[in-house]
Amino acid sequence: MSLFSIVAREDFLSLVLDNEASDPIHQLDQTIFHEIIPNQSFFLYLGQAELGKEGWHLAKTLTEQGLDLYEVALVIQHDWEEDLKSYFPKLNESLYYANNLTLQVKPMEALAQKLMMKGMASASQAQEAQFELFKEFTGVIPGTSSYIKCMLVEK
C-alpha cells in the first residue's frame, strides 16, 4: 500500500487506502494498515514494514488488555521514541490528510482541491472526493493498486 487519505469531522472519520497486499519492490518502506477494533479503530503506519507489523501487534494486544487508544499511543510512542501527534476535529471543523511513500506526487493538494469541489459536510461527500483522488493517482504512484479499502467510523 502506498497511498491513503483520511477525512475527519466531529461526527465521522473516513479512511480510504489502496489495498495492495504487498509490493515486493518497496518491501522496506510501505504503509501498514490493520483494524484494532473492527469499525472503531485502526493502526496506520508508514515506514519499515516490520516495525509497522510489530506496532500493530502491540496495539492490538494492549487494547485487548483494556488500555484505551490514547494509552496505547503513549506506550507505542515511548517504545519507539517518536512524537505523538493527535488531531481531533472541533465542532464544524474538518481535518484531512493524504500521503504516499514515493513523495513524487502531491496527494494533499489534490485531495484539498477535490474536497473543495465535492464538499466534506457528510461522509459520502468526503468519500467521493477520496475515491476521485485514487482514480487520479492509480498507476501514477509505483505500487499503487487499483483496489481500494474503505473504513468509515461514525459517531
Can you describe this structure?
This protein has helices at 49-64, 69-80, 107-118, 123-137, and strands at residues 3-9, 12-18, 29-37, 41-48, 95-100, 148-154. The mean pLDDT is 79. The two termini are 27 Å apart. It is globular, with a radius of gyration of 16 Å. α1 (49-64) crosses α2 (69-80) and α3 crosses α4 (123-137). 35% of the residues lie in helices and 28% in strands. The chain has one domain: Glutamine Phosphoribosylpyrophosphate, subunit 1, domain 1 (4-Layer Sandwich). β1 and β2 (12-18) form a beta hairpin. Strands 5-1-2-6 form a four-stranded antiparallel beta sheet, covered by helices on one side. It has a two-stranded antiparallel ribbon with strand order 3-4. With 155 residues, the chain is α+β, with helices and mostly antiparallel strands. It contains four helices and six strands.
Strand content range: 25-35%
In this structure, how is the largest beta sheet organized?
4 strands, antiparallel
What's the overall geometry?
globular
Structural class by sheet pairing and helices: alpha+beta
Q: What is the helix fraction of residues, given as a range?
A: 25-40%
Low-confidence residue ranges: none
What do we call the CATH topology?
Glutamine Phosphoribosylpyrophosphate, subunit 1, domain 1
CATH architecture: 4-Layer Sandwich
Rounded to the nearest angstrom, the radius of gyration is: 16 Å
In spatial order, strands of the major sheet run: 5-1-2-6
Terminus-to-terminus distance = 27 Å
List the helices and strands in order.
EEEEHHEHHE
What average pLDDT do the residues reach?
Answer: 79
Number of helices: 4
Number of structural units classed as domains: 1
How many β-strand runs? 6
CATH C-level class is Alpha Beta
